[in-house]
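Entry 14. Structure prediction run on the chain below.
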Amino acid sequence: MAEAVGRARAVPGRTRPRGDSRTADPAPRSRTALLWALPPVAALGLFFLYPLALVVRQSLRPDTGGTSFRPYADVFASEAFRHALWTTVWLALASTAGCLVLGSLLALVIAFVPFPGAKAVARFIDVYLSFPSFLITLALLFIYGTTGILGSLRFLTTPWGVLLAEITYFTPFVMRPLLAAFGQLDTAQLEAAGSLGARAPRIVRQVILPEALPALAAGGSLVLVLCLNEFGIVLFTGAKGVTTLPMLVYGKAILESDYPGACAVAVVDVLISTGLYGLYRVVSRRAGA
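Output returned:
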């Protein structure tokens, strides 16, 4: 009897071993996690944060020497900066609006209008996202360029040509989250709305779009950030008089050798982009993306 009781007391799980991890000191684990985190943090600082720090430092060092905010004052006072800021903002907003409208229409057709090859088109959208922006602009040159089919219009070298190129390239960035959201819709709601006599426009307006609104906002926020920093499309179109903030940085650094001014514009652009990216993350989190 005593031996049975002794064996019962020795059953694993009924008594806590002397080296139980629940009573162990958590300090060694914290030190181990810190050691594992040091290499990626050091790499991040070396390859990403350090160059940004150099840009900020250069923006505070005018050609006259010393450290001051003179480069920022000169940039903010220049007509070129104000023009570039306005051009960047209206192009980004107009491109985002165009992408939202066109992307929503195309996503609705692909998701809800049955036609042969709909799945292949949806897969092509994923492939299209990997294309570089200059490739799309290069393709448009064969249509709207000086030697293209409609070259006599000289459309691509205008701000409207840049707008068309950006809408063409960035529309799939709106379609992708919308297609994912449409795929999660409850088809029973659509069938119920149809059985009650609701027509397609009303179903889209009152059933589909409210459910897809977070995905639409997330896609629009991403496109706004990307359009704000787009450089290749503006450069490849060769549009005269279209100077965005990235083009202004390029001009000051490469053409004028004004590195403090270029860095000051770059810092302003980074601050705007970071703010918009924070908005994108908030919207994406609420959308579950």
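The chain has twelve helices and no strands.
Filed with the rest of this week's runs.
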